[in-house]
Amino acid sequence: MTMEVTKNQIDDLNAELVVKVEAKDYEEKVNETLKNYRKQANIPGFRKGKVPMGLIKKQYGQSVLAEELNKLVSDALYKYIDEQEFEVLGNPLPKENEEVKGDFKTPDTFEFTYEIGISPEMDVKLSGRNKYEYTKVKIDDKLINKQMNDLRRRYGKLVSGEKVGDKDMVLGQFVELDDKGEIKEGGVMNSSTISMEFIEKDEVKKKLIGKKPGDQVVVNPFDVSRGGEDTASMLGVKEDELDNVSDQFQLTINEVKVMEPADLNQELFDKLFGEGNVKSEEEMRERLVQDMGQMFEKDSDKILTRRVSNDLLDKTKVDLPDEFLKRWIKASQKDPITDEQLEEDYPNYQRSLKWQLIQNDIFKKNDIKIEQEEALNYTKGLLVNQYAQYGMPAPGEEELNQAAQQVLSNQKESQQIFDMLAEDKMTTYFKETVKLKENEVDYDEYVKIAEDSNA
Question: Is 231 inside a domain boundary?
Fold first, then answer.
């Protein structure tokens, strides 16, 4: 049964949809539902199934009618929208300050008016004339040596040291002090470990460097930990108890642990690259150049994608039905938000939606698609990498398929997968479309550029 839907265009970005529902559209379903209610109704003074229909209609008629009308109108709206060439933003919203036309007490014809936001026309300008910097990292001896040292430390072993260094671990006892700098009666006392690498304040590091087992130092526990759960764990208290803990503790150093780097031998080569794949320090350096090149290429691609997308966002004119979208955002939130919060957050939402529209336009005009099988294979690849990170072999094809399908059945995780795939496809499109000017920088500058790009 097809209901009449009429579109009233307000402007290029806003319209009203009027849904007309006649009695013939809902009567049969409403009567059927009320008959079922009558069969199940337990009303004092009447046997089950023998309650007068008039009483059933009086008690349940309007609510059943409202539920059926809601379903019919919703189906009609989305069917109509699906058949049109225009695209809507968000979902239709009941028109503000306008009641449904029709009488629920003596039902006949009803009219429902909804507001919709319409997706704007796009003119995304990106061609081979556009030129963008493609930043690459200079993989020089300095960077290779740093990577080799990091790997040797990661696979090294802890040995006792004579004094504290800037990368060592300090094992000691923390004792809480009072305002006078004396041991607090009934205060916190706990043995724990400090990792010097994670101390951010130089003055705190300097206070500890050179100290030996048996030495005592007064420290602020928040300066020698990473805050929150880490600080609580170090002091042996619950996280919600930290507000009542002093910022002055006596640390007695019991032991210093120094990381002794692993030797550059066949045992290390096999651990890092698989048995027999690398047989010398020279081959390890060559392999690191290759591996880091592949790793940094992905990061360079991300930097390029951010540059191009930000440029498109700045240069592409996109008008949005802002007032409608603000209403829709408020209506779709699980937790209520104030007008002030909405106004503060709206520019970020606006920019995000603008990029989504630009991306959709590029996909549509260039016939770029993400197929379900492609998403499945991509998810399987992510899972295989996860297993590898934990040093575990990937499961067989059937089990891997099931695991990937399980991930994609979760709406949130599935959306993340499709977003990642979309970004990969955008990167490929950008690299194939625009002119690239390669610029090689050292590692520290590269990291700064990557951080600025993400910001």
Answer: yes
Domain that holds residue 445: 270-454
> How far is residue 147's CA from residue 425's CA, in Å, rounded to a whole number?
31
Residues 284 and 400 in one domain: yes
279 neighbors 268 (Cβ within 8 angstroms):
no
Model confidence, pTM: 0.73
Cβ neighbours around 301 below 10 Å, total: 18
**Overall number of domains in the chain:** 3
Each residue's pLDDT tens digit, 131-186: 999 999 999 999 999 999 999 999 999 999 999 999 999 999 999 999 999 999 99
| CATH classification at residue 190 | 3.10.50.30
Q: Which two tokens stand for residue 103?
A: 């009488």
Rounded to an integer, what distance in angstroms lies between the CA atom of residue 81 and that of residue 122? 19
Residues pairing with 438 in the sheet: 134
> Do 165 and 292 belong together in one domain?
no
Instruction: Read off the tokens for 264.
Output: 């550059």
- Residues 49, 53: Cα–Cα separation, whole Å: 10
15, 14, 19, 118: which is closest to 76 by C-alpha? 19
The sign of the dihedral angle between the CA atoms of 334, 336, 339, 340 is negative
Exposed e or buried b for every residue in 23-51, given b needs 16+ CB within 10 A?
eebbeebbeebbeebbeebeeeeeeeeeb
**314-370 pLDDT tens trace:** 999 999 999 999 999 999 988 889 999 999 999 999 999 999 999 999 999 999 999
